[in-house]
Design goal:
Length: 111
Amino acid sequence: MFIQLFAIRHIPTGKFMPLTARNRGYTQVEAGDFIELYAAVVPRLFKSRAGARWALNAWLKGAWIQEATMGEYGIEGYDPCPPKTPPADRRPEDMEVAVMRLETAEEGGTR
């Protein structure tokens, strides 16, 4: 049995966008931080091709910054702002959404 997942791959290097756990969003990840498939860090996986495409489109625009809206009693909310100019090193033709297949091991197999 298997499930189909999707990941974002940098075509020239074959590396994948990593799953981030640094209290920063994935748009903060630079292309140089992409990982090998079997690295110690897990690639960021998506349940749908559309979700991966949306994430890729946001990433191509550059690192998004949240700006706080200040009110009378402190912070009232946050406004996510995309960068004014997309970074030159984030080129759409260098990226793709890759299909991943996750299979379960046969009974008695390795886990």
